[in-house]
Write the structure tokens for this entry.
Amino acid sequence: MHLEIPKTLTEIAADKIRQMIISGEFEFGQQVTESQLSELFGLSKTPVREALLRLCSEHLIEIRPRCGTFICRLTAEEIDNISELRIALETCAIQSALNKNREKLLTELQQNIQCCEPFLLKPDREAYLALDTAFHRSLLKFANNPYLMDMHRNTTTKVLAMRNRLTFSQEYITRSIQEHKEIVEGLSSNDSEQACRVLKQHINSGFTVRAKRLLSDVAE
């Protein structure tokens, strides 16, 4: 029997703040206070304070001495650093997933692509983003490495926050789905090097120069 352990108040507060950053309810660089958040969530200051410290360790919150507490800010360099980390984590996960759960990995990725096929004709931004996120999480899921998964989860939070502030053209969505197909083709033919090359290109093209400028401007 699996018993679900109830979340602590700190975990509840951290989840709420994290989701508000992802959704855009909190803007990059926006100042927040313990009092404001305590009133918003109906919680005392102690779990909110602990939640902010936890999110600070995830680089989602910045605590500046004698200045205050702020939602993270972004620069073009930081966006490049996030992409670099994603590439390192996901290419590492690919090798592990192929060794441990090759068939399950391929089945789930192929199902994901099938679900994306309708978007080639009729774009659906929200559904596409959800399936794109699921595609990349599958690589980590079947690697069966909780340390890789934890690092990727923290990185994904910022990626989702950035993507929710951008628009995506039909051309972009079509190209993204095609690159997913090429990744799966490489994995299916046991050419992990080719799959990793496409994955690197895919991640690096996720944020254009214009997108980086827009996201950095939001943080000003």
User: Anything to note?
Assistant: The chain is about 70% helix and 5% strand.
